[in-house]
Amino acid sequence: MNSLANSLGTTATNPSFPLHTISVLVRNQPGVLVRVALVFARRGYNIESLVVSGDPVNANFSRMTITCSGDPETLEQIIKQVAKLVDVVHAIDHTGQSAVETEIALIKIKANLDERTVILQTAEHYAAKVVDCSASSLILRVTGASEKLDSFISLLRPFGVVELVRSGKVLMTRGPEAT
Which domain holds residue 135? Predict the structure, then answer.
């Protein structure tokens, strides 16, 4: 993943294609992540972000949330190929569906005493929390839509971003059915 492109909210592979969010339910087996990633790689698709989490209800399964961009016809073929893998239960492109999407970022910024008021006011506006504070820096945690994080990060850049870590997008469809 190109972290600079991700932090700017653009894609490293081709900015003319929209981002797609794909949910893949898989069995917890060694090598599943590699096999899924290889399907994307063989088609020349770059995975912008990838989040894998175990299912708290059934430990035999995990959910992968994959964000990528590229040609829609190729993506459709990739999803079909992923769905055919032995340990994949289903793979769904949620782009355009009604879903709740969020991600989290930790941002370490230089913060002189005279700049902290402006930084903290900006953080409050974005509902960010200060999770660590030193004499010369702050670590802020912010959650929300990718666009919100992009905007917040761009406002903090003039203060000096020392380090930035983003989780990647997680998603859950609205309504009573499982994602």
Answer: 100-172
